[in-house]
Amino acid sequence: MAFPATVGKSWRQLHPIQFIAALGDPNASSGADATSQWGLWRVDPGPRGVRLSGIPALPQSGPQGFQTKAGWRLDTQDFWIEEHGLAMEAPVPLPAGRYMVTGDREKTVPLNVAPNGAWSLEGGAKLYDVTHLPCRSARYVAREANASPLSGADRAFPVKPGGQMPPLQGYEHKDYAVVFIVAEEV
Description:
Layout: E1 11-22, E2 30-31, H1 34-37, E3 39-41, E4 50-51, E5 66-67, E6 73-74, E7 78-82, E8 86-88, E9 92-93, E10 97-102, E11 108-113, E12 119-121, E13 137-142, E14 171-185
């Protein structure tokens, strides 16, 4: 991944990289609510994911959920799915700070997240510029008491790069851009 030569000693390069689930207009360079609307995966959630077809039928499993082999719990009423159809652990809220982000395409720029949740990208970058297009994620929240992730969703995956995440019967969902964090300010 390209790391800008302008990055000084105030930055700590991350190995492995971390991942942001960003919600917002792809053409925006700034916005509000990053700390409450965005999420952070400190560990790549994909390899720790669970195939939807591997989830036991647990109606209304709730927060106690289904214990995965990777050690996290899947709440079938509020969960995340990635572009290959793997259910993933929920990200933690993105803390305020300054992050070096990229979509592993053309731009690697600082992302500023203020304590009030306001965010901004430097260098004229837009959210789209730092989105890793092959990665997709969505949060699915049940709108019906009997909603189940086993509702035939496996046939809707994988999602094409840049494509929209599919609907699941009984759920509302929001698509999130995936942004790589390659360094953080210290």
